[in-house]
């Protein structure tokens, strides 16, 4: 198959200010663009006015996805690539933001960590290519297990001497989207007005919703049920999809919100844009935990400021205590995978 390129008319020229803030549109590369998340995410990103070039890469089917999306009458250029003919290099070169939803999803009965054996290699391959062809891009990852894929990317970037922790973010927005929806269902409020901070990581007990900070009061029973539903919301979808995959549409929505926030900070220089994300963090240095999701103020470089957790209830302190050992294991597994790789 040939690398495939489609060019729309009316594309804004990319220019950059001296402060590296993107002044006139950005190139966003989606790696895994033909998948269950990749396709709706690419569709949503085609509507983002800050994007001048949407670059779609997958090992299969990208030409069709790119041709389809390129007919939408928004200004951005859409290009599609497969592996052959330097597709990955072309997809990545000059990218400002990379989003990775490549990799296998769960089937019922699996944990996210069960995806490690397949997805670690995929994410590593894409990180190596990004290090070579787009070392300055802000790298964002959806592929599970996020708790381990972020450390994998970091370790690859260290090997290539391009590591800047501000430029690598694990997307945990779906946990916030779900938590806000579930709280609003219980409280009869408008979900778009709910803002639940979710911290920790992105799997089971490492997902810690800070419900004490929502301004609502919950009975002990409500707190337990709600927390469990937020921690295992992904399993609800995996079970309902009965072997055909995991959350794709809600994830695409969540990732497009996240990318939009990032672009508002990068392109428009907006201050105070906060998205909880899984990043290199000093919050739990004393426990030797290098990565942690918390509220992150986004900037032109990706991570601006990592916010502390704020006041936790006794219940949340217990959740945190349960999360930290699991998180530590997941992080070590990702880092060891790269350390033990021959190439
Ligand atoms: N961070 C989060 O909150 C969430 C993460 N996920 C994760 O996202 C990942 C993708 O999920 P789906 O889109 O449902 O899976 P999918 O199987 O529908 O799509 C994955 C795509 O990745 C592509 N791919 C495989 N190897 C590749 C490679 N080496 N380079 C480029 N592309 C490659 C496949 O061809 C496929 O099109 C899974 O790991 C899933 O667990 C899913 C939901 C939420
Ligand atoms: O549950 C999964 O495997 C996919 C995912 O990360 C989520 O939906 O939160």
Automatic annotation (TrEMBL):
Binding site for NAD(+): 32-38, 58, 119, 142-144, 251
EC number: 1.1.1.37
Positions contributing to substrate binding: 106, 112, 144, 178
Active site residues per record: 202
Residue span, Lactate/malate dehydrogenase C-terminal domain: 172-338
GO function terms (MF aspect): L-malate dehydrogenase (NAD+) activity
Entry's Gene Ontology cellular component terms: cytoplasm
Entry keyword set: NAD, Oxidoreductase, Tricarboxylic acid cycle
Gene3D superfamilies, per the entry: Lactate dehydrogenase/glycoside hydrolase, family 4, C-terminal, NAD(P)-binding Rossmann-like Domain
Recorded catalytic activity of this chain's protein: (S)-malate + NAD(+) = oxaloacetate + NADH + H(+)
GO BP terms in the entry: malate metabolic process; tricarboxylic acid cycle
Residue ranges of every copy of the Lactate/malate dehydrogenase N-terminal domain listed in the record: 26-170
Keyword Cell wall biogenesis/degradation (UniProt): no
One Pfam family here: Ldh_1_C
Entry similarity comment: Belongs to the LDH/MDH superfamily. MDH type 1 family.
PANTHER family from the UniProt entry: MALATE AND LACTATE DEHYDROGENASE, MALATE DEHYDROGENASE, MITOCHONDRIAL
Subunit note: Homodimer.
Entry protein name: Malate dehydrogenase
């Amino acid at each position: 198959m040939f690398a495939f390129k489609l060019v729309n008319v009316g594309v804004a020229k990319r220019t950059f200010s001296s402060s590296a803030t993107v002044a006139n549109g950005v190139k966003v590369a989606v790696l895994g663009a033909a998948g269950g998340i990749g396709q709706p995410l690419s569709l949503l990103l085609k509507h983002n006015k800050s994007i001048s070039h949407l670059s779609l890469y997958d090992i299969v089917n990208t030409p069709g996805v790119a041709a389809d999306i390129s007919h939408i009458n928004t200004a951005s250029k859409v290009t599609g690539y497969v592996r052959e003919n330097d597709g990955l290099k072309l997809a990545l070169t000059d990218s400002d933001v990379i989003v990775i939803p490549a990799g296998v999803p769960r089937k019922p009965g699996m944990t996210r960590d069960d995806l490690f054996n397949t997805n670690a290699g995929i994410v590593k391959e894409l990180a190596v290519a990004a290090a070579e062809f787009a070392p300055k891009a802000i790298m964002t990852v959806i592929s599970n297990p996020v708790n381990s894929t972020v450390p994998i990317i970091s370790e690859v970037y260290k090997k290539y001497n391009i590591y800047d922790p501000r430029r690598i973010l694990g997307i945990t927005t779906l946990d916030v989207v779900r938590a806000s929806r579930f709280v609003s269902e219980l409280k009869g409020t408008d979900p778009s007005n709910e803002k639940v901070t979710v911290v920790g990581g992105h799997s089971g007990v490492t997902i810690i919703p800070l419900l004490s900070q929502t301004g609502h009061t919950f009975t002990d029973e409500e707190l337990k049920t709600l927390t469990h539903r937020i921690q295992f919301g992904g399993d609800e979808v995996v079970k309902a999809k009965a072997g055909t995959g995991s959350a794709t549409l809600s994830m695409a929505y969540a990732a497009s919100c996240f990318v939009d926030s990032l672009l508002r900070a990068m392109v428009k220089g907006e201050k105070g844009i906060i998205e909880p994300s899984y990043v290199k963090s000093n919050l739990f240095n004393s426990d030797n935990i290098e990565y942690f999701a918390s509220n992150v103020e986004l900037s032109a470089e990706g991570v601006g400021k990592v916010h502390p957790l704020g006041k936790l209830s006794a219940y949340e302190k217990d959740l945190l205590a349960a999360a930290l050992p699991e998180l530590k294991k997941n992080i070590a597994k990702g880092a060891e995978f790269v350390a033990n790789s021959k190439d």
